[in-house]
């Protein structure tokens, strides 16, 4: 992937603005790796790049999927690989930008050849309680049971599906895939926690000034994956009169800070990219220049 450069990091770290300005200076195009910005109809809630940023350079996989369509790492990989190939055919570098760990890893490490969904088996597993699912997983895949989110029914069901269909623990199959990186190049951008949390709080407040409540009210039917969009549940609670607007803002800020903390932990456990603490740099221009030099130092002509 010598014609692909990754800019990854937690939400509200400033990736989108940095990527657009870097792309302008190296004739690149941006491919979003955000699990929720990929959906149409929720640009405010998903913090999609604003119009000024989108106009700077071509952006791919931003607002490109219907909100009632299910997404997965496999679907994302297929779409992203096609976008990257198109960009490379034009002799340009693709900047993959985002914070959705599994989507990014589907590109940097590839995807395991896991079995397709068996609708009957999935229905049987979905009928079980969380406690039953956790007990079954612990019995057949102790390592996976220790690592998995025990409150995430979808992941528990999928892990058990993989075991039943392959007679091998999902954690073992995924470790085999995860250990084989593709030589990806990129940077992991982050900020000191206090600064990042302040940026998150301001972003949520701006969402309400920009009309996120009306956006959610008119969102229509959403797929199961789109339903997981950060802040969606809180805004719906406010619209239904269950919480006040100030309570909604505070809850969204807390939820987003927790999400950013999980992202930071995840990226620090995936040390394939050079880390850049944006809090230590003078300003946005300095960060753009630092990343630009990294892009230019790795890039080679496509016909090499």
Strand and helix layout:
Elements: E1 4-8, H1 15-26, E2 28-32, H2 51-56, E3 59-60, H3 73-89, E4 93-98, H4 101-108, H5 119-126, H6 130-140, H7 142-147, H8 153-166, H9 170-178, E5 185-190, H10 193-209, H11 212-217, H12 232-239, H13 245-268, E6 274-277, H14 284-298
Could you characterize what this model shows?
The chain is α/β, with parallel strands linked by helices and 304 residues long. It has two domains: 4-110 and 180-298, P-loop containing nucleotide triphosphate hydrolases (Rossmann fold); 119-178, Histone, subunit A (Orthogonal Bundle). The protein is 53% helix and 9% strand. The chain has a six-stranded parallel beta sheet with strand order 3-2-4-1-5-6, sandwiched between helices. Helix 2 (51-56) links the parallel strand 2 and strand 3 (59-60). Helix 1 (15-26) packs across helix 14 (284-298), helix 10 crosses helix 13 (245-268) and helix 12 packs antiparallel against helix 13. It is globular and about 55 Å long. The model is unreliable at 175-180 (pLDDT under 50).
The side-by-side strand order for the widest beta sheet comes to 3-2-4-1-5-6
- Structural class, from helix and strand content? alpha/beta
CATH superfamily of the largest domain: P-loop containing nucleotide triphosphate hydrolases
Q: Quote the distance from N terminus to C terminus.
A: 13 Å
CATH class of the largest domain: Alpha Beta
CATH architecture assignment name of the largest domain: 3-Layer(aba) Sandwich
Domain count:
2
Overall morphology = globular
Number of helices: 14
* Helix/strand order, N-terminal first: EHEHEHEHHHHHHEHHHHEH
Query: Which stretches are poorly predicted, pLDDT < 50 over at least 5 residues?
Result: 175-180
Oligomer: single chain
**Helical percent range?**
40-55%
Rg result: 20 Å
- Fraction in beta strands: 5-15%
Write down the CATH topology of the largest domain: Rossmann fold
Number-wise, the strands total 6
* pLDDT averaged over residues: 91
The biggest sheet amounts to: 6 strands, parallel
């Amino acid at each position: 992937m010598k014609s692909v450069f990754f800019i990854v990091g937690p939400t509200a770290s400033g990736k989108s603005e940095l990527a657009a300005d870097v792309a302008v200076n190296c004739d690149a195009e941006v491919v979003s790796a955000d699990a929720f910005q990929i959906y149409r109809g929720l640009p405010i809630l998903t913090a999609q790049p604003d119009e000024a940023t989108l106009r700077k350079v071509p952006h791919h996989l931003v607002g490109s999927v219907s909100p009632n369509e299910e997404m997965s790492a496999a679907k994302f990989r297929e779409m992203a690989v096609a976008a990257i190939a198109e960009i490379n055919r034009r002799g340009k570098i693709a900047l993959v930008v985002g914070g959705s760990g599994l989507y990014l890893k589907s590109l940097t490490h590839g995807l395991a050849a896991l079995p397709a969904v068996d609708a009957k088996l999935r229905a049987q597993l979905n009928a079980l309680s969380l406690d039953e699912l956790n007990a079954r997983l612990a019995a057949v895949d102790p390592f996976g049971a220790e690592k998995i989110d025990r409150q995430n029914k979808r992941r528990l069901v999928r892990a058990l599906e993989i075991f039943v269909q392959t007679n091998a623990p999902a954690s073992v199959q995924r470790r085999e895939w995860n250990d084989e990186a593709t030589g990806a190049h990129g940077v992991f951008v982050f900020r000191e926690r206090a600064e990042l949390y302040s940026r998150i709080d301001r972003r949520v407040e701006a969402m309400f000034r920009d009309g996120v409540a009306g956006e959610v009210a008119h969102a229509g039917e959403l797929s199961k994956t789109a339903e997981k969009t950060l802040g969606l549940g809180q805004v719906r609670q406010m619209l239904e009169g269950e919480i006040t607007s100030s309570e909604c803002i505070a809850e969204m800020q807390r939820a987003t800070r927790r999400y950013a903390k999980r992202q930071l932990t995840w990226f620090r456990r995936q040390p394939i990219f050079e880390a850049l603490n944006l809090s230590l740099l003078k300003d946005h221009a300095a960060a753009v220049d630092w990343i630009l030099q990294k892009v230019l130092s790795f890039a080679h002509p496509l016909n090499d």
